[in-house]
Amino acid sequence: MIIRNATEKDIPSILELLYELGRPEPIDKKEIIVFKNKIKDYFSDPTKLILVAEIDSEIVGLVSIIFLRRLNHAKFEMYVPELIVKKKHRFTGVGKKLIAKCISIGKEENCYRIRLESGNQRKESHKFYKGLGFEQSGLSFSKNLLGNKIEINEM
Ligand SMILES: CC(C)(COP(=O)(O)OP(=O)(O)OC[C@H]1O[C@@H](n2cnc3c(N)ncnc32)[C@H](O)[C@@H]1OP(=O)(O)O)[C@@H](O)C(=O)NCCC(=O)NCCS
């Protein structure tokens, strides 16, 4: 298995993996172009990275990385929005190798920590992260901005 930076030719495999993670699929052809352009952004933005795990020319996993600047830290915070391993390749060490690569990049790039969010329902992934030494350090809150609910500033 090799872990390498993703390139444009990996975009279809990256999208397949994101759908496997449960991310929204495009509603029409226009949206596929939007998704593809968002991935391309990662290739041109030095604060972002997508790494893929490849076995015999097949993309079997990915991790995405954003280097965040925090107000009270001289070093970057490495934020990991996505980590996915294809179902049939799970429990074979791919996820662990992707995280190990994040750790070594984080050290090289002067990051003070890695942070990620994992949905409450992903109990299995929580075991994976805890097994790799990640600590649950907070709760994650989100507010849906779609739909017609009354917003706080409108009440
Ligand atoms: C979570 C995920 C990335 C783990 O990847 P993986 O390649 O299967 O994990 P690995 O084989 O590298 O496992 C590393 C260690 O974690 C343990 N582990 C992995 N998945 C586990 C699970 N579901 N439950 C308990 N332990 C688990 C392994 O047993 C292994 O332990 P070991 O080092 O003592 O042998 C993968 O299951 C996945 O893609 N899940 C769906 C998407 C997802 O939930 N992503 C995270 C979003 S926050």
UniProtKB/TrEMBL annotation:
Keywords: Acyltransferase, Transferase. This is N-acetyltransferase GCN5. Gene3D superfamilies: 3.40.630.30. It comes from the Archaea. Transmembrane segments: none annotated. InterPro entries: Acyl_CoA_acyltransferase, Bact_Acetyltransf, GNAT_dom. The keyword Nucleotidyltransferase does not apply.
